[in-house]
């Protein structure tokens, strides 16, 4: 049996914030009459301004962790002696020794959340998921990511256990719930829980036929609506929900998390009345948000002769519905509960004030761009 000495060394360095080295045992390290088998790793000693902590690397083989004595207080020294002594006792009394920390599920997911935030902030690190979290197998499955973000919600309004139980009940199976901060949670649900296990749906998302993409988006949208309503009944306060398409977390989760954060950010800017944000519906908003502010302001000044009418709430609501319904006059009138002629009068008024006829394709594109750029420029 051999201890994972490098892992122990790394943990000691993380705790003490000082460099430890592993040195082979020599006779000078033993008191008179002691042998390698009789020495217990519960004693430390100082030699040449260094502290040495002896331990058994394997049966009959001694070594020591060494660190500059100035880095440790007496209390820290005793704690390390106790730690290594306990490891020696377990090694003697049992055929196997596990030095992997035993975390509860909530502790593991909290640690995973902190690790994930660090990886999302530095996409070049490509660091593997820590083995002690025991999540690699779970993250190898194709899963659908959701990001739940509170806005002014009361701290502790819903606990990890409550939310995890609620999600497991809704999805009909276990999900990975990862706390990111006091107001944000990452939810990973196996694709099969949402889409079933049909062979066609088990294909790689990137290789799906085009005619299957739309049903997938419809299913994900429906699940998002249901999930939002479910949580709204439990969570006091305003919150936002973002969703992305299925992926394998072990390969792409830091990128997916950044996409979900961006999706919520764009949703709050461009669609202030909505709380469910779908990543695949914000391509145009994502592009416009990256245009420099000076260029956005120049476009707003040049595109129409007057924009006063677009600051009217009724006009804005009319145009939002008009674009949602693919510029269909009759359907827009029905949705707004107004006569068709009333809607035509409003559209004519917009043309008169702006010089753009929203019923023509080119002008509709300009006004749509104007509305989006106005939101991202004027509201910041």
What is the count of DSSP helices, taking H or I runs of 4+ residues?
14
Structural class: alpha+beta
Give the DSSP E fraction (strand runs of 2 or more residues): 5-15%
Sheet having the most strands:
5 strands, mixed
Mean pLDDT: 81
Widest sheet: strand order? 6-7-5-8-9
Overall morphology:
elongated
Low-confidence stretches: 95-99, 209-213
Protein name: PucR family transcriptional regulator
Pfam families: HTH_30
InterPro entries: CdaR-like_regulators, Homeodomain-like_sf, PucR_C-HTH_dom, PucR_C-HTH_sf
Task: Describe the fold and architecture.
Mean pLDDT is 81; it is low at 95-99 and 209-213. This protein starts with a helix and ends with a helix. It has 14 helices and nine strands. The protein is α+β, with helices and mostly antiparallel strands and 380 residues long.
